[in-house]
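User: What would this chain look like folded?
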Amino acid sequence: MSTRRSYHRASEAERREDLIGATLDCIAEFGIQGATVRQIAARAGVTGGLIRHYFASKDLMLQAAYRQLMNGITQTTKSAAEGADARTRLRRFIVANVTPPVTDSRTLSLWAAFISHIPLDPAFAAIHRESYLSFLAELEALLLAFFAERGRTVDTGECRSYAIALNGLIDGLWLEGTLAPDMFKEHEIADTAIVSVEALLRLARGELS
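Assistant: Here's the prediction, encoded as structure tokens.
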């Protein structure tokens, strides 16, 4: 039985969010090509006509779903990066990117489905670029604050290089931890991420722990 909201009570925004959620569910299960409008409507418990009220085409609905997936990951990691000092914020941000709920099988399935579509669709490529630049900007801000807190002068170009390298490191560990979580001990991926970041930033061992 569907657990989604009763549509006659939901607001316009809630209805749109539920349709996007149903789209993500279907893509995770069937892939982009296999996720038909009919399946999405059935998953959401609505008619195809209601879907067309919110999305003029399937492509627009898929784009909205991809943007929500990426925004959701970004928001999760940003929310985790809270603390009284820059060191704590940077450390929590890194750990959040390589641990649940960011590392889970559903997110991996969705990422794999969307990433294969990016070279084929300029709209998806634009969303990917937007998400990447947003992530990079967040990481650069955290790094600048961290270095300033330690009295270390780093210009914006060097900071950008660090952010690009850290993004690649995080992506690799995220993929490993999501593909085969049973291969690693508890906290091993997160601990490895921190040690690797310390080395990349030329910090003393334990300085970010």
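The chain has two domains: 1-56, 65-200. If you want, I can go into more detail on any region.
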